[in-house]
Amino acid sequence: MLKATKRRALFAQSAHPWFSTTALDDGATLFINLRERIAAGSSHVNTVTLRRRSLSRVALATLAISAIADPQTVFAGGGLGGAAAGEVAGPGGNGGDAGQTGQTAPAVEGDGSNLPGGTGGIFPGGNGGNGGLGIEGSTLGLTSGGGGGAAGISRGFAGSSLDSPLPAARSGGRGGDGGNGGEAGSGGGGGGAGGDGFLLPSPSSTAVPISITNNTAITGGSGGTGGAGGFGGTFGGGGGNGGDGGVGMSLQSPERISLTNNGAITGGSGSAGGAGGDSSESPGPSGLAGLGGAGISGSNLAIVNSGTISGGIGRGGQANAITFTGGVNSLTITGTSVINGNVVAQSGDTFALGGATAGRFNMALLGSQSLQNFGQFQKTGTGAWLLTGGPSVTALPWTVVSGTLDIGATTQNATTIDNSGSLIVGNGGSLSSTGVTNNSGGNITVAAGGALNDDLSNHGTVTNSGTTNAVVASNTGSITNTSTGIWTGNIVSNAGLITNQGNWLGNVVATSGTITNTGVWNGDLLNNSSLVNSSGIWNGSVTNAGTFAASGTSSVTRNFSNAGTIILQNNAAGDRLTIGGNYVGSPGSRILLDFSTQTARADQVIINGSASGSTSISVLNLTPLAPFATAATLIQAGSIAPGTFTLANAQNFGTSALVLLPQNGGTTVALGSIPTVAGLSSGVALTAAQTIAFQSSDVVFDHIWEVRNGVADSSQPQAQGFAGEALGYAVQRRPTDAFAALKAPPPAVGPTVRPAVWVKGWGDYVDQNATTAINFGGQIFPQDLSFRQRSGGALAGADALIKNVTSADDALLLGGLLGYTNSHVDLKASPASQAYDGGSLGVYATYLKGNWFTDLMFKTDLLNVSINGGGINQKDDVINYDLSTNIGYKFDLTSKSYIEPTAGIEYVSSKFSGTTAFSATTIALNDGDATRGRIGARVGTEFLVNGVRIEPSLLGYVYSIFSQTGNSLVFGSTGITLPSDAGKVRGEIQAAVNFFNLSNGVSGFVRADTRFGDNLTAGGVRIGLRYQN
């Protein structure tokens, strides 16, 4: 066979006004210099380099873009014609240049074809010329016809857009047909390959990222038909193979190429092979058909397809729609995408479902099917994609970047899922994964009838209405298992919100966050510090160090260990928590319950086993409870160890206090009510009112004593002119004068009257401890009624001293008074307090006979009472009626000293104007009286300083309340005895100083005292002035 030789391709000088070309030898480079601007506004010069690839197929090998500013377009001619069958056969015609007709192949000898090359076009490349016939004759051996020329490239590219105003459709040039074989049985020539519809070759200089948008149709050129085999005598020549179709778009770049296809990209079709040559004995075989061209072929591609991408048809069927040849690639299909043919990717490439419109995707296409070798899978865009078919052959890693991925009714497998959008498993669907990460803002929904099998790390929102088998490794988002949902898997760590309305099987470790169970939870709960809301069933044990809030009818089937708080309080009494096992409370643990007397219901904790440890119970009462009433059971257990439950604080009960009452042999604990300290403070109110009466009356007797001493102690000569009240005692007294009353009185002198006015201020403090005990339900409940009282006021009066009433040694003092008192009482064991203020008025008298004296006083205190705090808001009035008398004798001692024994009795009757019954906000104020007796002695002396007689004295008393009424309360059939001062013996010490100005009739008074004994500590001060005319 003659070996086909390469033939130099000749190019004619182009007369096209845009290009200048130079004819070069084989393997040389053709430079096409752009002479004028191709795109508006561009003045850049682009250089395109063409290299021959082979005689049978010429294509652009390199697109070097020296500068890219605006989209530019370059064009290429048709491919070269095929070579001749033999050295002396005529060649095929050259492919046409852009805008030119290909060169005509001359016939040299034999039957070589004299066919023209295809016409080049501005947009499509020219077709390759056909090959010539082989020579005739057997002396030169068998020869074959020349192969057809490769088609020209439809369009080169430099820029960012491939769209209008290009023609609606374009394609690569068709390959030239192969030449027929010679008549000596030589084989037919192969058909030329079709040109690529669009070629972006790898640049020789540094590349930049390129973005391409296609809105039209691009088709690779079809291959040329193979030449027929030559006729032979014995053996016919074989037919030539058909040419392969060209690639629709061939894109090569070391940088990223972004291709958005809204049109149609199709590979060229492979052509038929030539028929075998005939012979007398053995006809030649027919040639093979050419392969179809790929729709897209290239590297570093990011393809978004909203149109159609198809592989060309040829030998073996349809070619690949897309072939990724290297680099990092991605394919994103939208809801309008159509792909005909396989997509062959590499392991690092990404397949994505994207776009803004909804779409459906058959998962059976992944893996070894139409979409091959992808390593990463994504859901992008805002649209919703429904998966059908499947599952894929192998588990695939999915990342939902945005939008919705709906598993639908399919069964799918995934290695990992990273979701930031919306992932849906529909009714009948099933998704299995080795791990799902649901990011913040992500949503995963498993519909009723759907199934999700994975390990979950959730930072977004998960809703399960189907079947989920997932260990929750961590949760900082929200997980909801609805009423139809079944969830199997432990919760390792929860810091978010988990809600179970259906059935959950798994143990829980709650580090923080909130868990709500309204369904059935099968597993143990370890609550370290979070909030657990339960109105359902926990089939397991609970260890609680946080807050376990139960409402409605909730149950824990096994043991409950409580070191935190169990809350049933929700402003609705009647909730119940049932514990199937034992209950153990740690010190500091609490149970908070509601109670309502209106419905006679209370929240309850029912313990089927034993109760032990230490737990305080706090009860919130929604309505008041009458004293000494027993309410519903709070705690019920098989057995309750003593001291297990104590009442911590009862809220909103006013004058009633709650107590826990063991009942039924110690197996139940019920709520009972007794009066609070504030509710029992009526006895304190009565004592406080009487204390005001006693202390203000002492102020009056201080004044009487001051006047009395002024009358009896005028022993200095300076007093004679002013204080004739010496009554015969103006001379120096002798010790024997103490018995002067037993002698005959001096001669009578006529009565004299000396008027006077006075004012005194006083303050007093009382700290008194008092307790009582209440026996209720077999239990003793002590109540602390201790209080502190601070009082003060002022008294003013006028009186007249009448001397020589019946004899020279007697005198009578008559006077009246007005006053104001303010007092405040604080209960030590209650926030309740009492306030008193009001006026006083009264009369007084004293009679002196020698050294004897008798005092008498009657006073009325008109006081307003206000009681507040501890749930009480109450106002009332009280009147003290105070009658008091004293008697005494003054013994003069040597050195102007004296001792004055005295004794007295005082009766005070206190009447409240609006005695009220006991209620939730008021206390019962009882009327009452008290009789106080006291006995003591005063010692003192006197001396004169600059006309002022100064008399210091010291008084000691022993006193006691002989009788006291109004110190009991009755609640139905139950009576309470309140603390009383009756029978308590106490002491009082007074230190006083009187000042008498003997020249102007002004006197002053200062006193301090202390009282003590039998739970009392008290003290007061007095100060006053008097002027006598």
Description:
This protein has 1029 residues and is mainly beta. It is 3% helix and 47% strand. Strand 71 (968-971) and strand 72 (974-977) form a beta hairpin.
User: Numbering strands along the chain, what is their spatial order in the largest sheet?
Assistant: 33-35-38-41-44-47-50-53-51-48-45-42-39-36
User: What coarse outline follows from CA principal-axis ratios?
Assistant: rod-shaped
* Portion in beta strands: over 45%
Cα-atom Rg, whole angstroms? 60 Å
Number of helices: 1
Average pLDDT taken over every residue: 80
Class per helix and strand makeup: mainly beta
Sheet bearing the most strands, described?
A: 14 strands, parallel, barrel
**Any low-confidence stretches, pLDDT <50, length ≥5?**
1-126, 132-144, 150-167, 714-742
Task: Summarize the amount of helix as a percent range.
Answer: under 10%
Number of strand segments: 75
Distance from first to last alpha carbon: 169 Å
Can I get a quick summary?
Among the domains are: 422-675; 682-740 and 756-767 and 859-1028, Lipocalin (Beta Barrel). The protein is built from one helix and 75 strands.
Keywords:
mainly beta; Lipocalin; rod-shaped; disordered N terminus
List the topology elements.
Layout lengths: L28 E5 L13 E5 L7 E4 L106 E3 L26 E3 L9 E5 L2 E3 L29 E3 L5 E5 L2 E3 L29 E4 L1 E5 L2 E3 L2 E2 L2 E2 L3 E5 L3 E4 L4 E3 L2 E2 L5 E4 L5 E4 L8 E2 L3 E4 L4 E5 L9 E3 L3 E3 L4 E9 L2 E4 L4 E9 L4 E4 L4 E8 L2 E4 L2 E9 L2 E4 L4 E3 L2 E4 L2 E4 L2 E3 L2 E3 L3 E4 L2 E3 L2 E3 L3 E4 L2 E3 L2 E3 L2 E4 L2 E4 L3 E3 L2 E3 L8 E4 L3 E14 L4 E2 L1 E18 L8 E11 L4 E7 L4 E8 L4 E8 L6 H31 L39 E17 L2 E6 L2 E6 L2 E17 L6 E18 L5 E17 L2 E18 L2 E18 L1 E2 L4 E16 L15 E14 L1 E3 L2 E17 L3 E4 L2 E4 L7 E13 L4 E11 L3 E13 L1
Parallel strand pairs: 4-7, 5-8, 6-9, 7-10, 8-11, 9-12, 10-13, 11-16, 12-17, 13-18, 16-19, 17-20, 19-22, 20-23, 21-24, 23-25, 24-26, 25-27, 26-28, 27-29, 28-30, 29-31, 30-32, 31-33, 32-34, 33-35, 33-36, 34-37, 35-38, 36-39, 37-40, 38-41, 39-42, 40-43, 41-44, 42-45, 43-46, 44-47, 45-48, 46-49, ...
Antiparallel strand pairs: 1-2, 2-3, 14-15, 51-52, 54-57, 56-57, 58-61, 58-75, 59-60, 61-62, 62-63, 63-64, 64-65, 65-67, 66-67, 67-68, 68-70, 69-70, 70-73, 71-72, 73-74, 74-75
